[in-house]
Amino acid sequence: MSLRKRLSVSSTGTRCESPLMFATTPNAESEEWVTAWKQVLAKDIIDSPVEAVDAEVSVEEACEVLLSKNLLCLAVKTLQGRSPQSTPYCGLFDFADVNAFLTLAATRHKFSLDELREKPRVQEILTAARDGKVPVHLVSNLSGKNPLEILPHDADIVSLLSIFSRGAHRVLVEAPPPSSGYLGMVSDRGLLSWFTTYAQKTPTLLRYLSVPLASLALPSLYLYMSVVAAKASDSVLNAMTLMSDEGVSSVAVVDEETGGLLSAVSVTDIGKIVVPAQSNQILSMPLKQLVAQIKEPDGSMDGVDKFPVYSVSPNNTLLYTMQKLLATNAHRVFVTEESPMSSSPSFSTMSPTNLCGIVSVVDVLSLFARIASVPDVDPTRMQRHRRASSTSSNESFRSSGSFAARSRSSSRTSLQRLGSVGSLEGFQMRWAERVPAPEQQ
Predict the structure, then answer these.
(1) Cα–Cα distance measured from residue 190 to residue 1, given in angstroms and rounded to the nearest whole number
(2) Per-residue pLDDT tens for 52-100?
(3) What are 279-317's pLDDT values in tens digits?
(4) With 0-12 CB in 10 A as exposed, 13-18 as middle and 19+ as buried, what is 197?
(5) Which residue among 8, 83, 272, 439 is buried most deeply as judged by most CB within 10 Å?
(6) Is 362 exposed, middle or buried (CB count within 10 Å of its CB: 0-12, 13-18, 19+)?
(7) What is the pLDDT of residue 21?
(8) Which DSSP helix (H) or strand (E) runs through 416?
(9) Are 278 and 255 in contact (CB under 8 A)?
(10) CA–CA gap between residue 418 and residue 93 (Å, rounded)
């Protein structure tokens, strides 16, 4: 089964007990930077339009819109009949929500009646599924990672930092009055791209970002603490459940014997590869095979291998890490003690690496938020909330901290009907028909 691997590194050489040494920002220089940041408006760095769907559209139809238009996020319109003074949107819907929804479908039989009473939203989803259609508004932000955040047209990028530094990934920007519409959406990656460009034009900030990761006090960079990881032989469903339970958008895929980092799988990969699959067999596919499918399109047009390198070392600079996050189109990169993992598409030729931490887009933006004296910077807030209110009550998917072998759940499947347990007898769902049925007792 999948594991949440807790990794630790003993002190060696000249490494101090804590790898996070504080790097102090010069006050005069930081004030100059922040003054410049406040001159840039959020609307100036909009990186996507606001694509909306009706609240009563099915989850499946909403996902088809994401895939057909190659979008990462949709706005869900407010239900008809709600107060006209309310926002035109009730929430957002992305691939993290898709992953949480499919994981719920796969693990629904694990809920007791008492647990269901404490989870009214889950009850609504299951009731809608029995009726044959789950509207997308019920699944909006089911992942707990996709809240609706809105800023006025004249908000600056420091206002963006105040939102992104608490774990959100997107912000809608209102149009100026008298319009009641929206100019577009800004992503955390879009803001990271702006800061990368700004740093390259600002020598004082460039010097500050040219120090090793290990010497920076990033708010949630714990190089030698824990990493959410799955083995290469674990199933796709294991990884999906792990991401949902742990409140993360991606998991490291590691070698069973060495613990070396092989690649990563994200909720976006799940949305773009698993959802369109015509067979439920993909859910029992080993992650090693899924990763091969993820990289398959790379180089197919021009013969160039673009298999992304998802790792950095503690000796790499923060600027290099920012550039790596942007170049690989990833939300996080993994920190390894040795050289970054090979870009070779062959797993067998990858040398073992000592996986010891992560750096995410939110981590980096939180650093800039602290420079700008933004209050209440807490990039792990949403992840903690997600773990506390996970839609899955499946403790067996969590790791005990070792690579000990665990029994696998049944891979017996039915394309006609899901097996059911207790009060969920007869539960039907088109997408859920792809998930393994629970073992009948």
Answers:
(1) 35
(2) 999 999 999 999 999 999 999 999 999 887 655 568 999 999 999 999 9
(3) 778 889 999 999 888 876 554 444 444 455 678 888 899
(4) exposed
(5) 272
(6) buried
(7) 35
(8) none
(9) no
(10) 26
Sign of CA dihedral 176, 178, 183, 186: positive
Residues of the chain with pLDDT under 70: 1-26, 82-86, 217-226, 296-309, 338-353, 379-441
The pLDDT score that the predictor gives to residue 236 is: 93
* Nearest C-alpha neighbor of 227 from the set 303, 311, 295: 311
Helix (H, G, I), strand (E, B) or coil at 187: strand
Residue 414 φ/ψ region, left for φ over 0, alpha for ψ in the -120 to 50 degree band, beta for the rest:
beta
Task: Give the span between the Cα atoms of 12 and 350, in whole angstroms.
Answer: 25
Bridge partners of 277, per DSSP, are none
Residue 256 φ then ψ, to 5°: -65, -40
| Angle of CA points 397, 360, 313, to nearest 5° | 95
Check if the beta carbon of residue 260 is closer than 8 Å to that of residue 254.
yes
Burial tier of 234 (Cβ tally within 10 Å: 0-12, 13-18, 19+): buried
Q: Which residues contact 395 (CB under 8 A, 6 or more apart)?
A: none
> What is the DSSP code (8-state) at residue 206?
H
